[in-house]
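Before relying on records like the one below, remember that each one covers exactly one chain. Contacts with other chains, cofactors or solvent are not represented anywhere in the record.
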Amino acid sequence: MTKSTRIRRRLRELLRTGATLAVPGVFDPLTALQVEHAGFQAAYIGSYAISSSLGLPDVGLLDLTELCSRFASVSDVLRIPLIADAEAGFYDAASIGRAVRALERSGVAAIHIEDHVSGKHTELRKRILEPAQMVQKIHAALDARDDPELMVIARTDALWASGRVDDAVERMSAYHEAGADAVMAAGFSAGQLREVRANVPGLVVLVNNGSQSLSQERASRANVVIYHSLCLQAAHAAVASMLQKFSATSNIQSIAESLGVAATVESLVDYAGLIRRGKKYGLE
């Protein structure tokens, strides 16, 4: 069994427990290692955090190769499952298979495919697929998997696009019936999620707003709560604060506490392991 399959099975096992997983969003291998080191059982990586780390808005500018490259570098260092953003699946149902196979090779444990076509994260008109088109995408994605343990999650942005909870619930029901391993209720509050649970029983639900406390999300019976930009926002705030202090003082000692200890980073990225291997193979 490969490392990827083993980790994918672990994610499915975690979901079967019925517990509500808190999943921090990362944007690179180092933040992913920090999430694992902090004891979280899964991590998330999305296009918003990746785009921002590249100095770009998240409006569909990333291509499949860029996403897979980042996903692979992150999943390579992790021993916990990584849930990844596959955007809209990169084109229609006829061509989505290539994307799914590439995403699978990147080592992620799960991918979510959305029904959003355009207008995301902007004030421009939001457009989403017709439910029947999205159902065909789900069928195509499931058919394209080489590893059946890779989870295919269907995300609906209907609530953002139309403001209608009933539309989103109907879509999630259709996506669930189409065979999606889970659905993602984008933008749902805990109260709205309870309505989903009442109308679509037996559903594995991910939410990505992270605006409630985990106890509230647990009460609404969310299986996974994704805090999609948690590490990105924390890193941005910390760096901005440090630079402001340094600019004001021009004294490196004034920001010593903000910098942390280099040895901590070196421990996280396993310098010690490299030294052990060097000694083992006679490279002293």
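The CA atoms of residues 15 and 157 lie 23 Å apart.
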